[in-house]
Design a protein that fits this description.
The protein contains 4 helices and 4 strands; from the N terminus they run αααβββαβ. By secondary structure, the protein is α+β, with helices and mostly antiparallel strands. It has a domain of 73 residues.
Length: 135
């Protein structure tokens, strides 16, 4: 996780109770069904493509002559659906990580499910980007 993202998250208030550690096995974390970020993220593809080309990045795969970048995301959520931590898992590009995290914190902050839980819990989803370098 980048230093900027760590500082942003450090400023986010976290409940006094101990937070659960970041999971190592994604398959054990519940998926956020129908998360708005998964639907909106393709709109950010041109911004991500520009950052990806400019940075020291890897991870995009060939998809029918275009580039597809899928980033697994972990979210530590409070019971009222507020993100306490955001962890892009396989981004392989610091500029894209910062961009995606700031977009989620800015425009999608209220898109997470409310569970009513008293303790923070992890959930996961994915953001996807598709772009072409064709003229």
């Amino acid at each position: 996780m980048t230093m900027l993202l760590s500082l942003m998250l450090a400023a986010t208030p976290v409940a006094a109770t101990a937070t659960p550690p970041m999971p190592q096995d994604l398959s054990s974390i519940p998926v956020i069904d129908g998360w708005l970020g998964r639907k909106i993220s393709p709109r950010w593809s041109e911004d991500v493509a520009r950052l990806y080309r400019r940075g020291d990045c890897s991870g995009a795969v060939n998809h029918d002559g275009s580039h597809l970048l899928e980033i697994d995301m972990l979210f530590l959520l409070s019971g009222d659906g507020k993100p306490l931590k955001i962890a892009p898992v396989n981004v392989h590009c610091p500029d894209v990580e910062k961009f995606v995290s700031s977009r989620i914190l800015g425009t999608l902050r209220n898109s997470f499910p409310k569970s009513g839980a008293t303790e923070a819990y992890w959930m996961r989803s994915q953001v996807r980007f598709l772009w072409s370098d064709a003229p």
